[in-house]
Amino acid sequence: MTEWVNAEVIDIINWTDSLFSLRINAPIANFIAGQFTKLSLNVNGKRISRAYSYVNAPSQKLLEFYVINIPDGKFTPKLLKLKPEDNLMIAKEASGFFIIKAIPKCDNLWMLATGTAIGPYLSILQQRDGLERFKNIILVHAVRYIKDLSYLLLMEELKEIYQGKLHIQTIISREKKHGHLHGRIPCLIKNNLLEETIGISINNDNSNHIMLCGNPQMIVDTQKLLQESRNMYKNMRDKPGHITTENYW
Ligand SMILES: Cc1cc2nc3c(=O)[nH]c(=O)nc-3n(C[C@H](O)[C@H](O)[C@H](O)COP(=O)(O)OP(=O)(O)OC[C@H]3O[C@@H](n4cnc5c(N)ncnc54)[C@H](O)[C@@H]3O)c2cc1C
Ligand SMILES: NC(=O)c1ccc[n+]([C@@H]2O[C@H](COP(=O)([O-])OP(=O)(O)OC[C@H]3O[C@@H](n4cnc5c(N)ncnc54)[C@H](OP(=O)(O)O)[C@@H]3O)[C@@H](O)[C@H]2O)c1
């Protein structure tokens, strides 16, 4: 049974018409960077809850979530209407194994995200725990339009902090923009453009591990491609592999 605690809205950042970040205060239990929790609201007398990844590091007091409004969704239009000092409920305990401890030994850690799924990586990178063992971390954010790169400034700040270890790469699918790759994650792996741009190749010699987060079809397509073309397999708790995933729906 989920134990719920009361949360107070501190701030809402509206990045675009549909993308927003919710900052709240709540007495949650400790969580591990990369995990998600559940947010809950009363909608027409009925309690609705949905899963959201923490964007903030566990060491940061304010809790932050990066959300896309689904106009005909049951929950997000209500979340978008919240104002500072409003209340909602949050699960006290976090969930999930999309965490650094679950990643086997490797040199290059690829963090690939579509849309709002950049969140767990930002939590991991802001927390910094357990990242010393990687030679390179490659953070890839794939979005439809340039305006959807809400956390680009934070990504660039993190790049500076990591002093050469962190590589950042943006991908835009629905417009061509200088300085960003154009297309989708699996296509840009298939044609080697992602690896050529970063200067690191993806292979199955255990020097690379791929984290995939977000759009479930992106995860299916990328995993299939990596399996067929690079002989890379899903990482299981009882059988270490090269690919660790988190589906958003
Ligand atoms: C482990 C986990 C972590 C999640 N973390 C986040 C998060 O940090 N931020 C976030 O915005 N959502 C996240 N989600 C999705 C979230 O739980 C809800 O499904 C989403 O907010 C839609 O709720 P809704 O009731 O408004 O829409 P619903 O009525 O439930 O409609 C769902 C449909 O909206 C689309 N959709 C749902 N979520 C997304 C998304 N994030 N990006 C693109 N399309 C989407 C899909 O087509 C899906 O079928 C997460 C889901 C899981 C399982
Ligand atoms: N982004 C917006 O401006 C916007 C505005 C209003 C509402 N919405 C709604 O919000 C929801 C989510 O939108 P979103 O843009 O955050 O998430 P999204 O649809 O998952 O798109 C994010 C990125 O993932 C890519 N992608 C989608 N399917 C893929 C696959 N099979 N393999 C590889 N890459 C894939 C998209 O490329 P493609 O572009 O090629 O699909 C895009 O670059 C949708 O229901 C949308 O209608 C979005």
From TrEMBL:
Keywords: FAD, Flavoprotein, NADP, Nucleotide-binding, Oxidoreductase. SUPFAM superfamilies: Ferredoxin reductase-like, C-terminal NADP-linked domain (SSF52343), Riboflavin synthase domain-like (SSF63380). Belongs to the ferredoxin--NADP reductase type 1 family. One of its GO terms (biological process) is cellular response to oxidative stress. It comes from the Bacteria. The keyword Disulfide bond does not apply. Its cofactor is FAD. The keyword Nucleotide-binding applies. It comes from Candidatus Ishikawaella capsulata Mpkobe. This is Flavodoxin/ferredoxin--NADP reductase.
